[in-house]
Amino acid sequence: MGEISEKITQKNNNSCSQFPVLTNSAEYGIVYQKDFFDKNIAINTDNYYVVHTEDFVYNPRISKQAPYGPIRVNHLKTGVMSPLYYIFKIKDDFNIGFFEFLFIGNKWHKFMYQNGDSGARSDRYAIKDKVFNKLPIYIPQKIEEQKLIFEINHKINSLLYLQHRKMELENQTSKAIYNYLFDKNKPFYFKDNKTKKVFLKELGTTYSGLSGKNKTDFGHGKAKYITYLNVNKNTIANHNLLDLIEIDKKQNEVLNGDILFTISSETPEEVGLASLWPYDDTNIYLNSFCFGFRPNSKINNLWLAYELRSLKIRKNMYKLAQGISRYNLSKKSVLNLQVDVPSDAEQNFDSKFVKLINIQTKFLSNERNELLLLKKFLLQNLFI
């Protein structure tokens, strides 16, 4: 490192300087401190270092994303940064972009592990400047290869950004369509529509989740139970988010078409979230912080699951949550909720339409995950 870089030691000695204060974030890179914290944290910046565009900054603060602290390049205009950071400039003989992606990867972590120290503060990693400058870096001799490695990674990042924006727009569109389809005041699609208000208790019956269990009963056995997180996060339950438990005929078994509700949470916004179980597995139980609802044949189960996640139902569900530090819900109060039930034709139309939207959203998410895997592969294999 010491052979291809030089430490920046220029101090901001003018207290009237108009240079903005920058910070080095593991997730977002180098950003304006005011934007990151929504306010100015630094008061006196006289001894701060001046950081120019394309200077690199090592932040010794460790996190899950940066176990040895992040090293990021400054793409912003000239600013000032805390003297706690190590600031350096790569010499002109090399491609800056090559090093940007090198430090985003983890090839340099082994050296830090072997030569550094977590220090007196557990949230910072300590390594002396003269030791840091001994960090070995393998660089392609040809500048053209350095540029090519940078361009490949840069294009992957550009694709990820575009995919992220595409997902944001898709989610906004999906949310708008979803709220429109399940708005009781929407224009009707079918001439024979006969929407009517029905109490949930008229559409089915409830049952309880697991009872009489302790922590030793979980994690083994030939049966499975649906986790709280599965119900909380999914309108249609994830078949893979199941945990093991022993077969117990005294417990209520979850059947295909049942709708599951969260009954307890630390926030009222997460109480009464509904999730459909559309699978034919046997010996499936429900966690004890949820209860099940078994609809009768008069209703489209998929439509009902979407309806129960709609904005108008969620607003009514918030009001039913009781508690202070933890919020709970009674089955009776949920069963007394009224639902606007349209004709069978509209139930089928709405549920199929939303399902198609969700398939598209999942497809975009899978594309993004594949790009992330490709980026990880490149960071691990393009750098020695």
Structural class, from secondary structure content? alpha+beta
CATH superfamily of the largest domain: DNA methylase specificity domains
Question: How many β-strand runs?
Answer: 20
* Count of discrete domains: 3
Distance between the termini: 15 Å
Describe the largest sheet: 4 strands, antiparallel
Mean pLDDT over the full residue set: 86
Tell me what the CATH architecture of the largest domain is: Alpha-Beta Complex
Q: Per the principal axes of the C-alpha atoms, what is the gross shape?
A: elongated
Query: What CATH first level of the largest domain would be assigned?
Result: Alpha Beta
The level of helicity is: 25-40%
Look up the CATH topology of the largest domain.
Adenine-n6-DNA-methyltransferase TaqI, Chain A, domain 2
* Unreliable sequence segments: none
Strand and helix order? EEEHEEEEEHHHHEEEHEEEEEEHHEEHEH
Strand content: 15-25%
Count of separate DSSP helical elements: 10
Radius of gyration: 28 Å
